[in-house]
Amino acid sequence: MKEYVDLLLINIGQLLTMESVGPKAGKAMQDVGLLEDAVVGIANRKIVFIGERESASGIQAGQVIDCQGKLVSPGLVDPHTHVVFGGSREHEMALKQQGVPYLEILQQGGGILSTVESTREATEDHLYEKSRFHLDRMLSYGVTTVEAKSGYGLDVDTELKQLKVAKRLQQDHPIDLVSTFLGAHAIPHEYKEDPQAFLTEMINMLDLIKKENLAEFVDIFTETGVFTVEQSREYLKKASEKGFGLKIHADEIDPLGGTELAAELGAISADHLVGASDHGIQKLAETGTIAVLLPGTTFYLGKETFARARKMIDENVIVALATDFNPGSCPTENIQLIMTFAALKLKMTPEEIWNAMTVNAAYAIGRGEQAGQLVVGRQADLVIWDAPNYHYLPYHYGVNHVNTVIKNGEVVSKRREVSDTTSLSSKS
Ligand code: IZC
Ligand code: ZN
Predict the structure, then answer these.
(1) Most CB within 10 Å of its CB: which of 58, 143, 251, 316?
(2) 86 pocket-lining for ligand 1 (C-beta < 6 Å)
């Protein structure tokens, strides 16, 4: 234990350490590593001790934060976002209200292709500023690590422009960004008659992306009218040979078998999974490919049926949750809202939800050893919540419960002075 720390958090009502030796499946997702009446010491941007109230006695601190009995957790991890994009798609709301399906809007040249047009037109600096704005908002909601996909260029120059924006933000913004190349997000109009040639063009970018260290993962939208399972297999195999980790937008709308493909190829994650088959779920459990569920999207697409999270957890699939923040199917940076959807629509318990947005989310983007847990020696990414306990967040919905966000040991977002929230609930 150190005698001097830069920052000392005292009087933590509930501390979720989320301590774990790996990603969690099944019953292990019920454990949140809860400590009550805890303290946390931070020095040189890292966590140097975690303990009970008494363990802070005699410690000198540069700054002390009295958490007044509040909940403290690791910074949240959002493992699936499309945060870098031009324009917006509010004009599609009327179409949605008329019942025009998402994939039909895309077939008509709207949807993703409308965002592609705006992103192609935007300068790199404009995209940078706009993405920064969205990231600031994510940080304000308690997110300290984010995955960011490209996929609104669908041509070499614009895809590179998006990836460069993500790289600059990784350097400049407090949030840690993990970059994914989603060049295979839709078929651009200039390749409408020859999707294979388009995929070849995207494959041909991979060496440069690797050389410039612009992405760690490669993703594809395996969906009716976009890319088939066979095209996806061939494409992802090439990406894997070039050393990229794999992700798939799998069985989001139609059950094509992207889930099985993700397991077959050893993808790090299979995302969406609303239409995942029993067999696909079993394969995820066997291979350890992480299920990243995105209930905010299912809600926003107006669907009745959500991903079968209960079955997945019962069958020992590793489940993570994300916003899917994007301008079409889930325009929200509010990951806390996703907690409520996960509770009410996926029937996940509060403990499972916290694991799915910390430990498991970090492993879903290759950051399991850096983020998602409060353990001595790790980077100090923490959130102090205006909440008396961890059950409170999924329950009290639609608002921002963040009091203070600490990223790498520094206070980066703070709402207001700590006030007494223990009176919000009879359970303190
Ligand atoms: O812009 O509509 N599903 N890709 C696959 C998306 C949604 C993002 C979008
Ligand atoms: Zn997505």
Answers:
(1) 143
(2) no
Q: What is the pTM of this model?
A: 0.96
Encode pLDDT of 47-102 as tens digits. 999 999 998 888 999 999 999 999 999 999 999 999 999 999 999 999 999 999 99
Instruction: Looking at 156-256, list the stretches that DSSP marks H as alpha helix, in order from N- to C-terminal side.
Output: 156-172, 195-203, 206-211, 229-241
Which residue's entry shows tokens 């205006």?
A: 386
Which tokens sit at 322?
Answer: 């994300």
Question: Ligand 2 mean position to 325 CA, how many Å?
Answer: 8
User: Exposed e or buried b for every residue in 276-306, given b needs 16+ CB within 10 A?
Assistant: bbeebbbbbbebbbbbbbbbbbbbbbeeeeb
Q: Using CA atoms, how far apart are residues 237 and 253, in angstroms rounded to an integer?
A: 23
- The answer to whether 11 touches 72, Cβ cutoff 8 Å, is no
Q: Which residues of 24-38 are buried (b: 16+ CB within 10 A; e: fewer)?
A: bbbebbebbbebeeb
Rounded to whole angstroms, the Cα distance separating 158 from 13 reads 48
Question: For 185-312, where are the E strands, in sequence order?
Answer: 217-222, 245-250, 269-272, 290-293
Identity of the residue numbered 307: A
Alpha-carbon separation of residue 358 from 18, 35, 370 (angstroms): 8, 16, 11
Using most ligand atoms within 8 A of CB, pick from 89, 226, 253, 326 the residue to mutate for ligand 1: 326
Look up residue 254 and give its amino acid.
D
* Token couple for 12: 């933590």
**DSSP label of 92:** G
**pLDDT score at 425:** 53
Chain-centroid distance of CA 65 in Å reads 28
Residues 250-289: pLDDT tens digits?
999 999 999 999 999 999 999 999 999 999 999 999 999 9
